Amino acid sequence: MVELQRNSCFDAAIIIPLRAKAVRQPEMVRLIQLVETLPEGYEVIIVDDGSPQAVKQWLTHLVEEWQHHSGGHTRRFKLVSLATRFRRFSLARARNAGARAAAAPVVLFHDVDFLAAPSVYQRLLRHIKTQQLAAKPENFFCVPVAFLTEAATVHFMQTFKRHQEAWCFRDRRQLPLESLQFLVQGSSCIVMNRKDLLSIGGHDEGFKGHGAEDFELLHRLACRFPIAEKPPEYERNMGSGTVTEYRGFRAYFALYGEQCRQAGCTLVHLWHPKRKGFGYYRHKQNFKRLQQVMTNQLPVERRPPTISPAVLLDEATHG
């Protein structure tokens, strides 16, 4: 592990898990692009979950170079390298390792395929401070993610290189629907109090590969810190499309991203061909496990609603 002295002067740690077979993979290009976009105020934790030695060495050099140029005062970089080469990749395991290694009081889980203009990350940092997450774990939230089409990804990157925002997602009436596969407000980009996360055990590492591990964590958080009345058929998976009715757990979790979207803090998911690594996608097995978890209902705290589910369906709602 490339590690420096613990330092809590950063407001939030961005945790980026990955596994790559080779240095020249697209994921590595996107990692560099992402890290070099992040503004001051973030601690950056890269978690390598089982890449070959050549990739590990390259990442070590890269992180040391970033840290040297930053001086460690305005941004902090750390590489967590897991000895999991011959184990199935696990987003849950990687995210937990990143949270344990972080020094900042707030953690943010960020996939390598997510991206935004620097101005969005600056607004996000301000939103984190406004929510007082360092002291109030009940204010956890999700950062909305707009999944782009292949053509929209090309357009986004053209504007990104000019340091501009391709679209504004604050106004529901002006979403670039022709450019979206779908918009996920209750995304895996969960922002929460680090100590609170560790106190509840982090992500459930029984979820292997990619799929549903984020929903299981959101389920536990939502039972502790409910935001509204749960929808009908809460345990039902209504699919990954844009929410059109208040039904199922995805609609409920979307409420946790509403304020963040209205604050202008939506990321995009850059299009890529479906990954073919063994065991990466385990949606069938993981969603079956999720259903079992949700069926065994956790105690739900009684708290007054803080948001109306109607905001998800009200086309006039905008920030």
UniProtKB/TrEMBL annotation:
Swiss-Prot/TrEMBL keywords: Glycosyltransferase, Transferase
Enzyme Commission (EC) number: 2.4.-.-
Listed InterPro entries: Glycosyltransf_2 (IPR050834), GlycosylTrfase-like_prok (IPR019290), Nucleotide-diphossugar_trans (IPR029044)
A Pfam family of this chain: Glyco_tranf_2_2
Domain called Glycosyltransferase 2-like prokaryotic type: residue spans: 14-286
Molecular functions (GO terms): glycosyltransferase activity
Protein name, UniProt field: Glycosyltransferase
